[in-house]
Amino acid sequence: MSRPRVKNGDTVMDKTHLVDEITGHRRMRRNRKADWVRRMVQENRLTVDDLIWPIFITHGTGISEPLAAMPGVNRMSVDKAVEAVKEAADLGIPAIAPFPDIEMDLRDPTGSHILDANNLMNRFIRETKKAVPNIGLITDVALDPFTSHGHDGILRDGIIVNDETVDHVVKAAVMQADAGADIIAPSEMMDGRIGAIRRGLDAAGHQDVGIMSYATKFSSGFYGPYREAINTGGLLKGDKNSYYISPANGTEAMRDAALDVEEGADMMMIKPGLPYLDICWRIKEAFGLPTYAYQVSGEYAQIKAAAMNGWIDGDRVMMETLLCFKRAGCDGILTYFAVDVARKLGRT
What we know:
Elements: E1 3-7, E2 10-14, H1 18-23, H2 35-40, E3 51-58, E4 64-66, E5 74-77, H3 78-90, E6 95-101, H4 120-131, E7 136-139, E8 154-156, E9 159-161, H5 162-179, E10 183-184, H6 193-203, E11 210-217, H7 224-229, H8 250-263, E12 267-271, H9 277-287, E13 291-295, H10 297-308, H11 314-327, E14 332-335, H12 338-347
Parallel strand pairs: 3-5, 3-6, 3-14, 6-7, 7-10, 10-11, 11-12, 12-13, 13-14
Antiparallel strand pairs: 1-2, 4-5, 8-9
Helix pairs in contact: 3-4, 5-6, 8-9, 10-11
GO biological process, one term: protoporphyrinogen IX biosynthetic process
EC number: 4.2.1.24
Subunit structure: Homooctamer.
């Protein structure tokens, strides 16, 4: 309410409001009043440079199979996948993370096919680097696509054996680097794997190949559609609780991450993403390394399903979730939305 006051001998109307007195004349909405000022003070921005696109590759040629649980995502043969990578590169996406659907008759208890220099993953790496040499390839060495039991490591007498698995993943990492992989991103969560892979890569002359540690991979229920995509869902014997981190344990996750830093990780990854934004923030604050989150298949599927039912604005939520990763300290995000987001950013 306005009230009269005297200024320089003149009576003027004082328009100070009770709200001004309560806030000490500090109003947060001043910086929100118009689009131009909101843009000027925006703290975090999402760009195409923040995007890493995970894709699924399968055997055969001319294949692009839609995945029912992940609308808009296809499982592609190498030729089709290379075409898709070309499109991603044209959109400015800096890196791809491929995951293979290995033929069932090539899977065995030790995942031995991962050590075949001509396996599906290594063929994809070579063909992609030949066709799109300037895009980054971030490859996994976990054994789950290659094992007959669906675990990320070698299973013996009901136990995932750590050290023998590490021997396998080191050899696989060198083979993938030989094929042209730029960054090895080991997701199997074995103890000592980062240091062992670093030593193995360096011994093979791959000092320039980086390691993106799955520093904190949680034993999560959000992986379901991914396991269908690589056909491990029906194979899994038991669970992965003896090597993935419990969702209840933040301090343990930080200890895991610290060990990976000591062992020589160049970058860190948190998986899944949105349920673990606190871990993203803690890891970035603690170590200062480039930090990434994986917006996993279950997160993607939830957004897609809700959008298809008209319950949310799918595009808006897609962009909001990715921006939230940036706010939580992430330098980038692995997301199945990458191509859609790159197109959208290119139109704005």
